[in-house]
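Run folding on both entries below.
>entry_1
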Amino acid sequence: MKQEKETKVEEVANEAQEVKQETQEAKTEDQEVETQATEEVNEWEKKYKDLNDSHLRLMADFDNYRKRTIKEKADLIKNAGERIITDFLPIVDNFERALESMKTAEDVDAVRQGVELIYNQVMSMMKSNGVAVIETENAPFDTEFHEAITTIPAPTPEMKDKIVDCTTKGYTMNEKVIRHAKVVVGA
């Protein structure tokens, strides 16, 4: 019996030892799981901080881009006419020379030729800046380009609904009408 008791005590001690080992193993596993969980949380927090930082930088870059483009657009609008005015200055100089020469000129033909040269210079400058005259001579009336100021009886049947006379020239700039031609239409 003593042996049985000792065997039982040993068995109980072994079981206690096994339970103790299992408990220690479970604690170790729990600690490992907890450590892994902590590492994963730290990793996710790092990723979150990196992404948040990246997002904030992107937003700041976009805001700077937006401000820069607004400033550039304002500068373009402010200085848009500078190129045209620069092109127009030599024409003004020629007009001033023509006015000076008119004071002493006796030859009307020479003055007329000078004014025609200045007119051609103006038209050339306008053409180089994308401005074109709207054609009206014997053209059919088109409300996209023409403004009828009056109608008159057509001189010939072919002139019905066509432009008979142009009182004010019209102009387009880069294929956009900037001034409609004022015309008389045959009815």
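>entry_2
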Amino acid sequence: MNQKVIKFNLGQRTKDMPDLRSGDVVKVYRKIQEAGKERVQIFEGMVIAIKGKQSSSPMVTIRKVSNGVGVELVLPIFSPSVEKVELVKRAKVKKSKLYCIREKTAKSLRFKFKALADLIAVDEKEEVAAEEVKEEKNEEVNEEVKEEVKEEVKEEVKEEKKEEKVEEKK
């Protein structure tokens, strides 16, 4: 039953979920309507919590400090008002919910961040490795298919020879 609910929820999503984790610094591009006009506003902050990753609309809590005041934004990722979510950098954290950073200053946190370029390089290496594995599997499958086709052709040739012999005897 649980797997059916998960499949249903994944089917309800309108766009791909970005690979977000707590500790990521992201830019959220939101559509805002003011005086009949629509514009895109950027909110850059750290992801401190993700709720409902398997649901049809996971909620993300993003926090930034603006002019000495902490501002948090809780929004569904698949909301029509969210144009896109862009990953800026990733911190190495040990918790999935970082509510503890609300009381601390930015200097006392001292997260170790990885720049986006490093993340892209790692992703490219993983993609290359995945492609190599796919190619190897495709080669194995192709060899198996070739062997099966050869066996089928041999069987057909044997049947044709048998039929010819039976016709000759008649």
